[in-house]
UniProtKB/TrEMBL annotation:
<dbReference type="InterPro" id="IPR036134">
    <property type="entry name" value="Crypto/Photolyase_FAD-like_sf"/>
</dbReference>
<dbReference type="InterPro" id="IPR014729">
    <property type="entry name" value="Rossmann-like_a/b/a_fold"/>
</dbReference>
<dbReference type="InterPro" id="IPR007357">
    <property type="entry name" value="PhrB-like"/>
</dbReference>
<feature type="region of interest" description="Disordered">
    <location>
        <begin position="146"/>
        <end position="181"/>
    </location>
</feature>
<protein>
    <submittedName>
        <fullName>Cryptochrome/photolyase family protein</fullName>
    </submittedName>
</protein>
<dbReference type="Pfam" id="PF04244">
    <property type="entry name" value="DPRP"/>
</dbReference>
<dbReference type="InterPro" id="IPR052551">
    <property type="entry name" value="UV-DNA_repair_photolyase"/>
</dbReference>
Length: 490
């Protein structure tokens, strides 16, 4: 039997054919030398890899080397590996002698099924259509070919602002994993690597995310029972004192391969069918996992490699150091300071702070999309090249002019004001675009639209906004103010 090489994001039992199959695990130090990762992300990845080695015992060979190629040179038997998750890793395994590449795992829809679906479509690829296909293909929340409840999307029942006057949602927090000797060893190694000159960003802290299949399953069970019912309505809401809201916080577990996404999808469906969760919550969660997660994975492989370098809005400014280094203390704007502090302290914030605070701010300022892909990849516990290419290039930075979205995800302070409790305690005013109190998001919004009015393709969803822009008498002053603000922390 060939030895199955498992990358650090292929750690669950579903990446093995047989429970006794010989396994190869490689810890490459060069990965951490080449890029500046969040300290807690480096901890999570190493902890998960070493926990898997401990679980497998004699069944696994665990090699600590500088590079993967160096490790593979010491292995004399045939090796097979499931299709890796980045283009660079795929090129590497294809180059190595004696390594057989097997189909991808860890996603619900196969690459072949996606290619068939996408190939048969005319026009742009949209998540909504893919999600419908995946629900039917895998028989999720359907009766015959029709959606349970009569609608494919219950987004309009979700997306609510936070409950009035609440500072936290009324849900128990996700269980925190207990650290053990393996975590202590990882922490000591990372401290030593830092002394040797390997750089990390963010703060160290107790490990908050699952590093084993057992921990991930426990978190899934807890989520389905206690948090899923509240998840749907408030999935897009933000509260300054509640960083987790009712999110599952399972994205890193899916992306490390600890948890089979189909198991989570079926679990959410069951929770609805047993009357333990309302349909909009179950549908909202299933949409994120079966829909969005799979969709961005498939686009990464379906589109040409050059997609990652798209920069159709000519965004040429470097990502400034205060943002890159997570210097939240340098920021006055309350929403941005809080979200950046969340990344610094946990390596995680949920999808709306990523898209509508961090991504929105970067889009308005014209920061380089490629640098942002790297930043999101390295700074988030669940970040990988495949996730962030689509989320940053296609969605948040609109760098491909809408190959996966219908319009740029850009908004002023009104959105943050509606969906959070940030603005009340901020020194800026979300309604102002000009002057000392001007909200940087509101001013940035109009400056962005003005700068890109010729580049953004005319479409019905942008028509009203562009007409409004044309009627603003002070837009030149706003543009000038934003030019003077430059890339200083707001
Ligand atoms: Fe953020 Fe503007 Fe609201 Fe301040 S006023 S919290 S900067 S959106």
């Amino acid at each position: 039997m060939s030895r199955r090489w498992l990358f650090a994001d292929q750690l669950g039992p579903h990446f093995l054919d047989d429970r006794r199959q010989p396994v190869l695990l490689v810890e490459s130090k060069a990965v951490f030398r080449r890029r500046v990762f969040h300290r807690q992300k480096a901890h999570l990845v190493l902890s998960a890899l070493r926990h898997r080695a401990a679980e497998l015992g004699d069944q696994a060979r665990y090699l600590r080397t500088e590079t993967y190629a160096e490790a593979l040179r010491t292995v004399r038997e045939p090796v097979e590996v499931h299709h890796p998750t980045s283009r660079a890793a795929l090129a590497l395994v294809r180059r190595l002698d004696g390594v057989t590449v097997l189909p991808a795992k860890g996603f619900v829809t196969s690459l072949a099924d996606f290619a068939d679906w996408a190939g048969a479509r005319r026009g742009a690829l949209r998540m909504e259509a893919f999600y419908r296909f995946a629900r039917q293909r895998h028989g999720v929340l359907v009766e015959g070919d029709e959606p349970v409840g009569g609608r494919w999307s219950l987004d309009t029942d979700n997306r609510q602002p936070p409950p009035k006057d609440a500072t936290r949602l009324d849900v128990p927090p996700p269980p925190t994993p207990a650290e053990d000797d393996i975590d202590a060893e990882v922490r000591a190694d990372l401290d030593r690597w830092e002394r040797e000159g390997i750089r990390f960003v963010g703060r160290d802290g107790p490990r908050r995310f699952p590093a084993t299949g057992k921990e991930a399953k426990a978190r899934l069970r807890h989520f389905l029972k206690h948090r899923l019912p509240t998840f749907g309505p408030y999935e897009d809401a933000m509260l300054a004192d509640d960083p987790w809201m009712a999110h599952s916080m399972l994205s890193s577990s899916f992306n490390l391969g600890l948890l089979d996404p189909l198991e989570a999808v079926r679990g959410a469906e069951q929770a609805y069918r047993k009357g333990q969760a309302p349909l909009p919550s179950a549908e909202g969660f299933i949409r994120q996992v079966l829909g969005w997660r799979d969709f961005v994975w498939h686009l990464y492989w379906y589109f040409e490699p050059a997609w990652r370098s798209s920069n159709a809005l000519a965004a040429r400014r470097r990502v400034p150091a205060w943002f890159r280094e997570l210097d939240a203390d340098a920021v006055t704007a309350r929403c941005l300071a809080d979200v950046l502090a969340g990344v610094r302290d946990h390596g995680w914030v949920h999808h709306i702070p990523r898209l509508m605070v961090l991504g929105n701010y970067a889009l308005q300022r014209g920061w380089r999309p490629g640098e942002l892909v790297d930043w999101f990849h390295h700074s988030f516990v669940d970040g990988y090249d495949w996730v962030m290419t689509a989320n940053v290039i296609g969605m948040s930075q609109y760098a491909d002019l809408g190959r996966m979205t219908t319009k740029p995800y850009v908004s002023g302070g009104a959105y943050v004001n509606r969906m959070s409790d940030y603005c009340g305690g901020c020194r800026y005013d979300p309604k102002q675009r000009l002057g000392d109190d001007a909200c940087p998001f509101t001013a940035g919004y109009w400056a962005f639209l003005s700068r890109n009015r010729e580049r953004i393709p005319g479409n019905a969803r942008m028509a009203r906004t562009m007409a409004q822009l044309g009627r603003l008498s002070d837009v030149d002053a706003v543009v000038d103010q934003e030019r003077r603000r430059g890339d200083r922390a707001p």
